[in-house]
Amino acid sequence: MTKDKEKLLVCEAEIVKLFETCRLCPRNCGTNRLEDIHRTHAGFCRESSLLRVAHVGPHFGEEPPITGINGSGTVFFSGCSLRCVFCQNYQISTGGLGEAVGLAELLKKVLEMIRRHPVHNINLVTPDHFFPYTFQLVSLLRQKGHDLPVIYNLSGYQSIGMLKMAEGYADIYLPDYKYTDSGLANRLSKCKDYPEVALEAIVEMVRQKGFLDSFENSPRMARKGVLVRHLILPGNVNNSLNALTTLYLEFGGALPISIMSQFCPVLPQRDKDLNRSLLKEEFDKVYSHALDLGFENVFVQYPDEPGSQTSDLLNLLPDFRQKYPFSYQKSLLPFGQ
Predict the structure, then answer these.
(1) Which end of the chain has the least Cβ crowding within 10 Å, N or C?
(2) What is the DSSP string of 56-121?
(3) Cβ distance 59 to 123 under 8 Å?
(4) What is the DSSP string of 8-31?
């Protein structure tokens, strides 16, 4: 038996342990995800131990030092441990879309993507409920000599224990910081403890990797560090103002942040404000607050007028029922799906 196979066997044994009483996310539901993998499970993420993936391919909707010219090599996992009611990826986060894949098959898809497209990184999107498989995937990529930075693209609602396990596999963390209003967090994501849990998780990520390194010298592709994202929710400007204030007080003005205005209603909402797009005055208030606080490294997604050419070009709403979920991908050469 080779050393590589010995390592994989150890990882597989650990996977069994981690899924048998699942505490991969802060909900700590303790569900046995190994039981009857073809049934819906009681765990919040609604996923069994069966690895499921919705899409593998280059993506051009991330921040410039992540996307670059050639795109970010994304792996979209099915299911989610947060399940926000407004999620634009609802087809896979709550809708159940995605295919069961073995680790070897996923590795093959990722290698094919790298071969066909010179992506700048490997971007694991919402992977926390499948963390053990991602650790295996990264190990295998490194064994094959690939040194692309690995991004863990996260909700912010992460377990400190699992983040400590991820330290050796992650190069870049892209966490959200969605809420400082626990009532809003409870209504929209059923996690009233989100504000404190997410802040502690981001502290751990920064401890591990520091701030995103693309700001240190002239503009270049990021290879290590943390960039925190915040999506402005229509009708909830105070939540955004408080989120930025909290981040500034905790990390200072050098923390790289991304202020996003891309909210788009994709499902009917009880909150009438969440059935509309963000207003320009709402965005302006939040953006001005970030500048007034003194944030130095800010990516800004400016709202566009409906129907404008820019708006059409930046329409990144995916349809995961399609082979190419993002509309711009149709202009790309096919990539091994």
Answers:
(1) N
(2) EEEE--S-HHHHTTT-EEEEEES--SS--TT-TTHHHHTS---EE--HHHHHHHHHHHHHHS--S-
(3) yes
(4) HHHHHHHHHHHHHTT-SSTT----
Give the tens place of pLDDT for each residue, 269-299: 999 999 999 999 999 999 999 999 999 999 9
Mean of pLDDT values over 310-332 = 67
Residues 6+ apart with CB under 8 A from 224: 149, 171, 172, 209, 210, 212, 213
Summarize pLDDT for 192-239 with one digit per residue, the tens: 999 999 999 999 999 999 999 997 665 689 999 999 999 999 999 999
Q: How far apart are CA 112 and CA 304, in angstroms?
A: 35
Q: Give the 3-state secondary structure percentages of the chain, helix then strand then coil, rounded to 5.
A: 40, 15, 45
Q: Is the pLDDT of residue 42 over 80?
A: no
Report the distance separating Cα 308 and Cα 289, nearest Å.
Answer: 27
Q: Is the four-CA dihedral 69, 152, 261, 256 of positive or negative sign?
A: negative
